[in-house]
């Protein structure tokens, strides 16, 4: 364990004088100062970046987080972009402030600016498992399972999985209907760089993400990991990457992954197909399948994405920080990321002024950069510290 300096030892022993303690709050060391998001949202010119780094220091910041936003004109992760990263890190070092990395082109993290789905193809694109209620169906490659069921309101009065799914199911009459489960792949969209978001429950997605983003940063500025570059921020990765008709109740689906069936069986001791319709309807197996599904989703997300990146950061001497979607709402947080246990792999929890409805004081310097603060919600952090 590193030996404490006189001031740090005094704080630890509770012997710091009142005047010294006030001074520590008035003029805190660099590592205890605010680290705001710094929007990179235009043509990156080093002279302007250097001026803004000086502005951060003049305003008492401990450093900055280089956050790509809408409007970036310098090609993301290209040679010119990486040169700006290198020179800005060098400027931060010269000014005695920290330069934090950000791992995505805009957000949510995991796409690598669209490189991950382009390299990995459909295997790493976000997926859903949809439920269709019908009296007949035509078999296609998307169908994963078919059931015959009788539905009473929100309850399943009976449900039987068909062991053999034929090219076309015979038309049912009376009370019986088919429940057809289909695997769907997300559609390309502009926000995801002309492709899709990724399947964050698939370890291959994060492996490609690390290769195309984290390793590129290591190659460019890895010598400053753990020094001028204390860490890297991951922003709102989530499992709900299949966003089509998200809020339309007539179209029912859940987050899915190619690895879900085998992982679910290994973790829970039974096949997910055995009782999956009861995830959507009430019945004796409903509570168990719902609990087991969300637990499995959480474990898969944590192990495939957060833990894999956290292990890489640990091995490379850099801290791992970030936040997930909708931490302020327990239901939405579960839909987007599973259970709270995801945060156990994040090393550093950022403090939010994102939701504070108070105006920030005007900057004293005309050239002080505009700051975008977007960190973990205060409510979630409070829960962790209570």
Question: What attributes does this structure have?
Answer:
386 residues; alpha/beta; six-stranded mixed β-sheet; 2 domains; TIM Barrel; five-stranded antiparallel β-sheet; single chain
Quick overview of this protein structure:
The chain is α/β, with parallel strands linked by helices and 386 residues long.
Describe the structure.
With 386 residues, this protein is α/β, with parallel strands linked by helices. The model is unreliable at 351-386 (pLDDT under 50). The radius of gyration is 25 Å and the shape is elongated. 33% of the residues are buried. It has helices spanning 6-13, 18-26, 46-58, 79-95, 115-120, 203-221, 260-268, 277-280, 286-315, 330-337, 378-385, and strands at residues 37-40, 63-68, 98-102, 127-134, 143-152, 155-161, 176-185, 231-235, 252-256, 319-323, 371-372. Helix 6 (203-221) packs parallel to helix 9 (286-315) and helix 7 (260-268) crosses helix 9. The protein is 34% helix and 17% strand. A 6-stranded mixed β-sheet has the order 10-8-3-2-1-11. The chain has 2 domains: 19-124 and 189-240 and 296-385, Alpha-Beta Barrel (TIM Barrel), CATH 3.20.20; 127-186 and 245-291, no CATH class.
């Amino acid at each position: 364990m590193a030996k404490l300096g006189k001031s740090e030892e005094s704080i630890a022993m509770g012997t710091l004088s009142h005047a010294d303690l006030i001074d520590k709050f008035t003029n805190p060391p660099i590592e205890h100062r605010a680290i705001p998001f710094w929007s990179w949202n235009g043509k990156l010119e080093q002279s302007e970046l250097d001026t803004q780094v000086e502005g951060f220091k003049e305003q008492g910041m401990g450093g900055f987080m280089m956050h790509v936003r809408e409007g970036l004109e310098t090609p993301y992760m290209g040679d010119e972009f990486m040169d700006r990263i290198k020179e800005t890190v060098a400027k931060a070092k010269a000014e005695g402030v920290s330069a934090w990395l950000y791992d995505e082109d805009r957000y949510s993290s995991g796409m690598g600016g669209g490189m991950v789905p382009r390299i990995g193809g459909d295997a790493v694109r976000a997926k859903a498992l949809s439920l269709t209620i019908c009296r007949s169906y035509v078999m296609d490659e998307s169908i994963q399972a078919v059931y015959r069921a009788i539905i009473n309101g929100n309850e399943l009065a009976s449900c039987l999985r068909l062991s053999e799914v034929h090219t076309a199911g015979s038309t049912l009459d009376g009370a019986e209907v088919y429940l057809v489960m289909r695997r769907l792949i997300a559609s390309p969209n502009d926000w995801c760089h002309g492709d899709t978001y990724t399947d964050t429950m698939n370890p291959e997605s994060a492996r490609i993400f690390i290769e195309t983003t984290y390793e590129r940063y290591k190659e460019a500025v890895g010598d400053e990991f753990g020094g001028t570059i204390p860490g890297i921020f991951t922003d709102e990765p989530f499992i709900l990457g299949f966003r089509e008709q998200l809020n339309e109740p007539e179209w029912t689906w859940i987050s899915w992954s190619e690895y879900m069936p085998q992982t679910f069986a290994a973790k829970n001791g039974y096949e997910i197909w055995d009782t999956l319709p009861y995830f959507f309807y009430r019945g004796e197996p409903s509570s168990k399948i719902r609990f087991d599904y969300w637990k499995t989703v959480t474990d898969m997300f944590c192990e495939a994405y957060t833990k894999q990146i956290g292990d890489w950061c640990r091995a490379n001497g850099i801290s791992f920080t970030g936040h997930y979607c909708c931490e302020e709402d327990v239901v939405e947080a579960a839909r987007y990321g599973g259970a709270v246990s995801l945060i156990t792999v994040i090393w550093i929890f950022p403090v939010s002024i994102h939701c504070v409805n108070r105006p920030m004081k005007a900057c004293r310097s005309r050239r002080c950069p505009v700051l975008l603060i977007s960190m973990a919600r205060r409510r979630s952090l409070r829960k962790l510290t209570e």
